[in-house]
Amino acid sequence: MYAVAEAATTAYFGTKVYARGIVEFSNVCTKDCFYCGIRKHTKVHRYTMTKEEILACAEFAYSQGMGTLMLQSGELPSPERINFMLDVVRAIRRRTMDLACESPPFPSAGPNQRDFPSQRGLAVALSLGELPSSVYQAFLEAGASRYLLRIETSNPTLYTRLHPASHSFQARRKCLEELQRIGFQVGTGVMVGVPFQTVEDQANDLLFFKELDPDMIGLGPYIVQSQTPLGKLWLEEHGEESAAKQEANRVALLERTTRMYALARIMLGNVNIAATTALEALDPEGRELALRRGANVVMPIITPQRLRGQYEIYENKSGIDQDALDSTACLERRVRMAGKELLLDGGWHDPPHFVR
Ligand code: 5AD
């Protein structure tokens, strides 16, 4: 299975790995998902970066040759936040397009930049959660072109157990359909190994992907966050287990997650699949493993170091003590260790699935 997945990945992408810088610009959240470390009811210092701070990250990503910037935050659907973000998206596009015109730093940049002059500067990807269609539309018009919204689980009953009653599986699915209709490149994904999840649920997750037909998949292991209701429940059941048992759990979860990468690659073919950061909480070489089992994208965190500790969606999150330059250099090394090559040529690198 892993060999077939790797063969499919190299057939579409060669040994090239795409990079998207990710800025976790705010941990303010109105949602209360039972598994998440930045849910409304965890005690954590809340921050929101300024427009200038986010722009500085964008310039950094651009200067490093990452073609895409992903802006991620908790959910805050207020008019102020939406207007702020529309302004930020426009500013990033304007600033990085100007930079590209002044002195094209990547003369040999990917085919995108030669064939599609509009694809200059940074592509902006958003991961801001559920919003009204009109707001998604406004973001597209402001210059964003990609949107990541995990369905978290394709099983509506399991969804209900992982979220408060006010959160709706149907509403979330509707958002994904709207994003596709509006014309975004859409990414989705699930958590693997979340309490109550069965292997059948995982099979259905893959069938859900197949049916939705997204351009990108971002899935990762569930990692316990001890301040959350689900984390507490998990610790009650498993907290006392022996070190040997815990080690066995860790290895099993790594396997269970990378099987999902492999199967997603085999079933969906030419989409982008991201090797998520959460894998590193399981194994320092988790991301390399994913890159050899179906993934073709890495998303280095370029959030300023002083804020990283506050965006602990889950515990043992890697890179908390690194700054953006460390993360990028480290990533290049790691990708090479997986026998692949990190592309830092400023290209947007849409997946063939979307280009077609
Ligand atoms: N473990 C792993 N992933 C998590 N996420 C939220 N909480 C956790 C956790 N405890 C994931 C969700 C969300 C993404 C931003 O982070 O899937 O979509």
From TrEMBL:
Coiled coil: none
Gene3D superfamilies: Aldolase class I
GO molecular function (one): transferase activity
Pfam families for this protein: Radical_SAM
Required co-factors: [4Fe-4S] cluster
Domain Radical SAM core: 15-264
Cofactor note: Binds 1 [4Fe-4S] cluster. The cluster is coordinated with 3 cysteines and an exchangeable S-adenosyl-L-methionine.
Keywords associated with the record: 4Fe-4S, Iron, Iron-sulfur, Metal-binding, S-adenosyl-L-methionine
Residues at which [4Fe-4S] cluster binds: C29, C33, C36
PANTHER family named among the record's database cross-references: 3-METHYLORNITHINE SYNTHASE, BIOTIN SYNTHASE
Protein name: Radical SAM core domain-containing protein
Organism: Nannochloropsis salina CCMP1776
